[in-house]
Amino acid sequence: SMKTAALLVCLVGSALAIPKAGFVTLFLTNPPFPILLLDACRNFHCKRGKVCHVDEQEQPRCICQDPAACPSTKDYEHVCGTDNKTYEGLCQLFGTKCQLDGTKMGRQLHLDYMGSCKFIPHCTDYEVDQFPLRMRDWLKNILMQYYERDVDTSGFLTEKQRNKVKKIYENEKRLSAGDHPVELLLYDFEKNYHMYVYPVHWQFYQLDQHPVDRVLSHSELAPLRASLVPMEHCITRFFQECDGDQDKRVSLKEWCHCFGIKREDIDENLLF
Ligand SMILES: *[C@@H]1O[C@H](CO)[C@@H](O)[C@H](O)[C@H]1NC(C)=O
């Protein structure tokens, strides 16, 4: 029947969010209840770390995700929290954070980086100075790689992005990818400054997705710490220094400033 079909759809859609044992009990002992329960929560959005639950008044409410009820994960889904504890996945981390809500520990717990916690060497002053040079170069090279791959199988870049990247890619003065000495990177930034403006904006746009609000939060910056970035152990220090007004968020202006982009070249219209 229609009702059964609707219930099945709900069941599938909510299977991850609702602890299985509780659901089965409700279902067996009180058949009409789960239909209400599932319907009230349907299309009801809860923020990260919370799941929808129907209260006694049959109103949907967001309650903390029980970390123990999170779906099981693979090793590569492990994440390291800012408490330097390894969580099995994002669900477990944000569920834990929610349960600590209102406490200092809860406020301080964020995603630090993808992967299990590991030893991260101290970042020296010398390295932190080099960081923007290396990262700028790395960003440009990543875009070049995406562009090359897109020639055969499109998908990495949108049409608009491809047009921007094409100009850089086809510029014969472009410094090729490689492990260059700092002096050369500095020289190239002076000489070919314009080639770096778009990649810096592009990376900001890639990270500014949860939510799209023109500032990068701690958790939006976290993916950068995934193993791809050279000198990743300097990221934390670098972004602390980037965050000029110390509001724990990096605005587009702060981001561009960190990478040496001139004020007049900071352009929200490049965020696509
Ligand atoms: C964080 O945890 C890892 C792995 O358990 C350890 O090697 C590292 O020393 C810890 N870092 C800090 C700052 O305590």
Protein architecture, described:
The chain has 3 domains: about 1-65, no CATH class; about 70-115, Wheat Germ Agglutinin (Isolectin 2), domain 1 (2-Layer Sandwich); about 125-270, EF-hand (Recoverin, domain 1, Orthogonal Bundle). The chain starts with a helix and ends in a 14-residue tail after the last helix. The protein has about 270 residues and is mainly α. About 50% of the residues lie in helices and about 10% in strands. The chain is built from 12 helices and 7 strands. A 3-stranded antiparallel sheet has the order 4-3-5. A two-stranded antiparallel ribbon has the order 1-2. Residues about 1-30 have low confidence and may be disordered. Helix 6 crosses helix 8 (about 180-190), helix 7 (about 160-170) packs antiparallel against helix 9 and helix 11 (about 235-240) crosses helix 12. It binds 2-acetamido-2-deoxy-beta-D-glucopyranose. 2-acetamido-2-deoxy-beta-D-glucopyranose (NAG) binds near residues 84, 117, 118 and 119.
